[in-house]
Sequence to fold (90 residues):
Amino acid sequence: MNIDVYGALFYDIYIYGEKPHESQIIEIPGGSGFNIAYLLYKLGYNISFNGFIGNDLKGKYLKDIIPFKNIQVKEKKTATFISKNDIPLV
Fold:
């Protein structure tokens, strides 16, 4: 089955801990559209994910590690989500 998914692709950063040099930092692709597309991909479906990334280092990194190759690159910064101890930072 072929499935098209349209949505956001973010560069997610999760920080756990209170002390700077003892905190755990996790950096992964995210965004609601990407999360749905990746889950369906892992379940074996043929996915066409339609999203975009920025023309920056974060975007290049995401493009290199995600399994979807039809991601558009725009002349903007890649959307980034950051949370500390599961509380989103503004």
Observations:
- The first strand starts at residue 2 and ends at 6.
- The chain has one domain: 2-88.
